[in-house]
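hey m, so remember when u said the tokens were messed up on ur end? i reran from scratch. heres the input so u can diff it against urs
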Amino acid sequence: MKNQVSIVKSVKSRKILLSFFVGGLLTACGSADTPDNAVNWVPLLLAIVLILLLGGALVYLIQSGKFKTWCVAGINAGKWKFQQSRLQRQKKTIKEEREDLMGELGKKAWEAKVHHPSYNETYLELVAFGNQITTRKEESAALENELKQVIDSRENVAAEYSQQIDDLKSSQKDVSKKLDRSKSEHAKLQKEFGQVNKQLDKTHAQIEENEGQLTEILASELPDKDSKAAALSNEIIAIRASLADDAGRIPDLENEISKLEVEQQPFEDQISRLTEQILTVEKNQEEALVPLDQRIADLKEGIQSTKSEVDDLKEKMKPIIQSLGPLVESARPESEVLTELYLKIDAVRANLGALIQEHDIVTTRLETGDQDEARNFYIMAGGILILVILIVVLLIVALG
């Protein structure tokens, strides 16, 4: 052991001296001017020296048997550490699988109501939670049944009022059609009345014009004034007859227009009454539906509340059911439902035991192995790697 320590110290001192030596040579190389494409001899010589030193060290280590001993110790240590890490991961995976099986065992034992005196306290605690859940579910079912009844009642009430409103609107539409027809006829008669009055005015003007012409003819000395006067008189008589006919239509038109105006007022009054009735029914519908809508909202809130309570109770049961698994596994009550899980748990336990045993063997090998020799291997490997890199760099500088 002391010899190994002294060897390590001597190697370290040689490395320190070598680093100073190499640093000085590299500084000298950096300060020296060399022509382009010329070989830089100083780094080349230094690389050769390092190659000789590396070769000498390897020859010494191989001849002394330390190279083989250190390599075996280092490789074994690395292999065992890798095995230890792999086994640790496998142990973790199998333990998680075992925990899952325990959880499933507790869940199935509770669902199948597999009872055993050894876990009576835990089982009774779950029974208490189960009773609370059953009570909440019954309350929720009762609320849902009442909700359905209230919704049906609301639909019936809404349908009844909607039918009343539809009937009133239908009646209002019929009356509106009658009123529109009456107003249309009234407008038509008003137009006709205006046209007749306009024709009367035109006829009066024509008579006055013809009478003026007749007066002028009678006062004239025309040879045929008698015939002209007679013709104009006949025309005036015909126009007066037309005037009488048109004037006779005025009372009839006024009478028909008056009748339509009298007829329209009841229609308008009836439409107003129907509008008021519709508004009243709509208000009554709203007043009738408000308490039903409020009851529906309260019932929905109550149902949601009971469902939330059930969910909370189930969440509280989960860790208890999880803890029931190991208790059931320990007691092993007979149950066809649990037999398959028992076998799976036994298989997992056997696998875990084998892994633990293998892990302990690997750990023992690591602990009982020669740690100093393994450490020397890594120091040697690191030193060789550094020297190789340094040699390559020097060769690149020398030949570059």
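this time it looks ok to me. The first helix runs from residue 2 to 31. if urs says something different then somethings off w ur setup not the seq
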